[in-house]
Design brief:
Elements lengths: L1 H19 E8 L7 E7 L6 E5 L17 H6 L3 E6 L8 H16 L1 H4 L6 E6 L1 H12 L8 E5 L12 H8 L6 H6 L14 E6 L11 H10 L4 E6 L15 H14 L8 E7 L1 H4 L6 H4 L1 H9 L3 E7 L17 H8 L4 E5 L7 H4 L5 H13 L6 E5 L13 H19 L2 E3 L1 H4 L16 H15 L4
């Protein structure tokens, strides 16, 4: 009886969809048409798009209530909606991953034609499709990573002892026997501060198929622990697989919660000026809770408004020196910053380079800085580059040496700036008498210090170079 009700509801949705959907069509994602994307374009576009991935344990696709059934509601909200009928792994996990990555590329490449903001393309996955969505959100290259992620009762862990056994086995195949592969694709471990897109996790407390605590809630916890934006909706009951089915007891509340979450997201304009903030823990926002909202790049975004798109590519402990203990140019953040194709780059590195174990290679600092500048300048956009000096080290925490910063690093930065015609922000001088703007470690700005940094950068960006 319950299955009959599902199919009746699906028929009703199919009929009413015509009133909201301006155009429906299918795109083959593979030459043999074994992977397809079914597209639902709204009559009136908000610019937002969502790529939907049905569940099914990586053994089938539940693309009714976890796929097409969402199209009417999506189009009513002005959201372009795309259901990806991806290939099942069958021993090769790259099959579903490559299908979804191709779908993301197509949606972004077709944004202008389909009335979509290419900076507002999200992904939504259910159960095993939630796991696939989380893989794309954490491990895929920047250009196909979504701008936001919606996870319905997702499989997150690939450890079959705490997850859905068949999703784990079907996705990993023989690699299920390798602990390093289990960890790699247990995506709560792949969450990266600033780099993993904002997410919302939707689940039911009584889900007996995919345990929420070790899966969806584990992803939420990983996001919150690194300070990334993430919301969590746990409904009292509903078990597993309710999707967009109207039979779900909390269906109306779910739509309201999801709708409000989507509306609350701040989206840059399609032609927004892109600002990449590159740096170490000071850019990253070390010691500032929810640095994604209260670090200096986030505060700079608020000051600049939606005509700018500010991204934080800071990574704690990183060095400019390629022979340092943690070279910045070896990081995913550096690759992402280049893929971001910024119009403006703010570089704030050098503090960790002053440590004795790093400054033993100090003669290479200039060459490595020039390498970074040259790489940025070789991009098609040739971005405006702003070079920030380190702020003072008020204490020698972690063996950071203010004498090296003042007498060696800053003079080298100034020489490189002169050679390449870069703008310089002398934060060392501007923070010289501002110990109250720094945390107790004497190194990292506190919230007031982050606010001051955002004001300084904002004043410079407000002026013509």
């Amino acid at each position: 009886m319950r299955n009959l009700l599902k199919w009746v509801c699906l028929l009703l949705v199919t009929v009413t969809t015509q009133a909201q959907t301006a155009r429906k069509f299918t795109i083959d994602l593979t030459d043999d048409a074994k992977a397809q994307m079914v597209c639902f374009l709204p009559e009136s576009s908000s610019g937002k798009a969502i790529v939907g991935l049905p569940g099914g344990g990586y053994s089938m696709l539940s693309n009714s209530h976890e796929g097409y059934m969402a199209s009417d509601w999506m189009n009513q909200q002005g959201i372009a909606y795309f259901v990806v009928n991806y290939r099942l792994p069958e021993g090769d996990r790259t099959r579903p991953v490559s299908d979804v990555e191709k779908a993301m590329r197509i949606v972004r490449d077709s944004a202008a034609v389909w009335g979509i903001n290419p900076h507002d393309v999200g992904i939504m996955g259910f159960s095993a499709g939630g796991h696939l969505s989380s893989v794309i959100s954490t491990l895929s290259p920047f250009e196909v990573r979504p701008d936001f992620t919606i996870l319905f009762y997702p499989v997150i862990s690939m450890d079959e002892k705490v997850s859905h056994v068949w999703s784990c086995r079907n996705f990993l195949g023989e690699d299920q026997k390798k602990p390093e592969m289990v960890r790699m694709y247990s995506t709560q471990h792949a969450v990266r501060r600033h780099l993993t897109p904002p997410a919302v996790v939707i689940t039911a407390n009584d889900d007996r198929l995919v345990p929420p605590v070790t899966n969806g809630i584990a992803y939420y916890s990983a996001m919150r622990n690194v300070g990334n934006e993430c919301s969590l909706f746990v409904y009292p009951e509903g078990d597993h697989g309710f999707g967009f089915g109207p039979w779900f007891k909390y269906h109306d509340q779910l739509l309201a919660d999801l709708g409000n979450w989507l509306k609350a997201r701040q989206t840059p304009k399609p032609d927004a000026i892109r600002v990449a903030c590159i740096g170490n823990s000071i850019t990253d926002g070390h010691g500032i809770d929810m640095a994604t909202q209260y670090g200096y790049p986030a505060l700079l975004q608020k000051k600049l408004g939606d005509g700018y798109w500010v991204k934080n590519f800071g990574v704690s402990a990183r060095t400019m020196l390629n022979k340092g203990d943690h070279p910045y140019m070896n990081e995913m953040a550096w690759k992402d910053a280049l893929a971001f194709q910024p119009d403006i780059v703010v570089i704030k590195l050098g503090t960790n380079d002053s440590k004795p174990e790093n400054w033993q290679y100090g003669t290479e600092f200039r060459n490595d800085l020039e390498q970074m500048v040259t790489t940025l300048r070789s991009a098609a956009k040739k971005p405006r580059i702003i070079l920030c000096t380190p702020i003072p080290a008020f204490k020698p925490s972690w063996k950071i040496n203010d004498e090296v910063i003042l007498n060696d690093i800053i003079p080298t930065q100034q020489k490189v700036a002169k050679k390449f015609g870069l703008e310089v922000v002398d934060l060392h001088t501007l923070f010289a008498d501002a110990a109250d703007l720094v945390q107790s470690d004497g190194i990292h700005p506190n919230e007031k210090g982050a606010q001051r940094m955002s004001e300084i950068i904002f004043e410079l960006l407000s002026k013509q170079p």
